[in-house]
Amino acid sequence: MVKTKTIFRCQNCGFASPKWIGKCPECEKWNTFVEEQIITGGQSIDRRLTKFSSSVVKLSEISTEKVKRITTGINEFDRILGGGIMPASLILLGGPPGIGKSTLMLQIAFQIAKNISKKNVLYVTGEESLEQIKNRADRLKISDGFYVISETNLENILETVKKVSPEVLIIDSIQTIYRSDLSSSPGSVGQVRECTAELLHLAKGKNITIFILGHVTKEGDIAGPRILEHIVDTVLYFEAEKHHTYRILRSYKNRFGPTSEIGVFEMSSDGLKEVPNPSSIFLGERLKNVSGSVVTANIEGTRPIMLEIQALVTKTDFGIPRRMSSGIDYNRTVLLISILENRIGLGLSSFDIYVNVAGGVKIKDPSSDLAECCAIYSAFSNKSVSQEIVFVGEVGLSGEIRGVSFIEERINESEKLGFKKIFIPKANYNNLIKKRNIEIVPVDKLSSVIDNLK
Questions:
Q1: Do residues 362 and 240 make contact, with C-beta atoms less than 8 angstroms apart?
Q2: Looking at the structure, do residues 92 and 21 belong to the same domain, yes or no?
Q3: CA distance 379 to 369
Q4: What are the distances in angstroms from CA 212 to CA 55, 186, 209?
Q5: Predicted model pTM
């Protein structure tokens, strides 16, 4: 006998409880439980609207000759995905409202359908009317090339897919799509999970490439369960704030290419435009002869990018000095300040210290440690560092400079942009090509680099 059971599900992590509770015991978030109706008892019901299965074959019998990536004509986007879009893949594009997700997808839809690959594209919007989509397309100078439908019911969307037979499907956004056989509201954990799973079956069963757009919470996570990121093949996030001119698109997961790749775009009246040389953009506004400004060569995925690290050291007015960092992990910054105090002997205990990465980039590579230490020392001593020097290296607790990866790429990028000297870890020096137009200085201690700056 079929019965309906009431449960309460956390909208943050998906934890289910038979009764409402204020704090989730799984993710420890408050006031995240929403009532849901589930069907129990009786025969199991197949809830899948699309079928996806295959026969058993040997791995050696599977041919990949017919698999050809779909190019979008936007080089930054193609490079993030590993050379183009893999057919039959499910791609999640996340970012805060107003950052440019819909704008980018409209441009990609036009490029795929009209200019480059000439594929059949269907754009599904659950947030705008057809007239609003047309107005935005006119502003972006997009005239024709793909199909558009304003719909939020998943069953109706699947019917449209059968009629149009698109090779690329864009869902904007997943938080507005719902299944009518589920009692929960659109955007809830159950709806987001079930709709995404259905789209996964559609992508693999019908060989359709699907883009899913998703909003993020104030903590920076996709609004909905984290299981959404496990279902999809690729996860892309916009990182920069919407009031910044430049948008940074990062790959956090990619089953068909490298992860942590970034693409830099500039928001203009004509939409998002790719920035082919981000290093020149991030260093273009750097002032001369200013203390606390240092350049490092950072690796994002497989691409070297030159970034400016800024530091400001001021006398504190309170008993406890303030430490702030933007673009760099706060705990890492506090650790490096402790190393400068203990190993170098800088008296920083009575000074407020602020560290920033120019351009809104977030650095996760520890190879920027040396540059951050030099920026703090430069600001503390009020001595400017030459604009022709680059610093690369991870700093250990003993003050040693540890080796980093992709050292050849970092040196080549520094040399290409006209820098004259680069400090690198001594462990990376032995296997390098020595004859270059840039002076390579191997170092093994932080103290030796600080002495060189005095």
A1: no
A2: no
A3: 16
A4: 28, 15, 10
A5: 0.77
Cβ(350)–Cβ(315) below 8 Å: yes
Q: Whole domain around residue 32: which residue ranges? A: 3-40
Which position has the token pair 């420890």? 28
Question: What is the Cα–Cα distance from 386 to 294, expressed in whole angstroms?
Answer: 8
User: 357 near 327, Cβ under 8 Å?
Assistant: yes
- Write the pLDDT tens digit of every residue in 189-232: 888 888 999 999 999 989 999 999 987 765 555 555 566 888 89
What is the DSSP track for 384-403? BPPTTEEE--EE-TTSBEE-
Q: State residue 211's pLDDT score.
A: 96
The residue that leads in pLDDT, 280 or 424, is: 424
Domain stop point among 248, 276, 304 = 276
Domain count, the chain: 3
Given 276, 303, 323, which residue is the final one in a domain?
276
Long-range contacts (CB closer than 8 Å, 24 or more residues apart) made by 372-375:
372/294, 372/296, 372/309, 372/311, 372/328, 372/333, 372/336, 373/336, 373/339, 373/340, 373/446, 373/449, 373/450, 374/294, 374/449, 374/450, 374/453, 375/292, 375/293, 375/294, 375/309, 375/310, 375/311
What is the predicted pLDDT for the residue at 29? Answer: 85
Q: In what order do the strands lie in the sheet with 323-326?
A: 323-326, 351-357, 303-315, 293-300, 389-391, 421-425, 439-443
Q: Are 396 and 333 within one domain?
A: yes
Which residues fall within 8 angstroms of residue 9, CB to CB, at 6 or more apart? 15, 16, 17, 33, 34, 36, 184, 188, 189, 190
Tokens representing 121 are 């594209």
Do 231 and 369 belong together in one domain? no
Residue 111 CA, chain-centre distance (Å), reads 22
- Tell me: do 257 and 291 sit in the same domain: no
**255 Rama sector, left if φ>0, alpha if ψ -120 to 50, beta otherwise:** alpha
**CA distance linking residue 202 with residue 48, whole number of Å:** 10
Give the C-alpha separation, 187 to 202, whole Å. 20
The 3-state DSSP class for residue 378 equals: helix
Residues 199 and 332 in one domain: no
CB 179 within 8 A of CB 154: yes
CATH number assigned to the domain comprising residue 358: 3.30.230.10
- Residue positions counted in the chain: 454
- Whether 208 and 243 have beta carbons less than 8 Å apart is answered as no
Cα(122)–Cα(149) distance, rounded to whole angstroms?
A: 8
Do 270 and 288 fall within a single domain? no
Q: Between the CA atoms of 62, 235, 303 and 386, what dihedral angle is there, to the nearest 10 degrees?
A: -170
Q: What whole-number distance in Å separates Cα of residue 299 and Cα of residue 261?
A: 9
Distance CA 417, CA 206 (A): 47
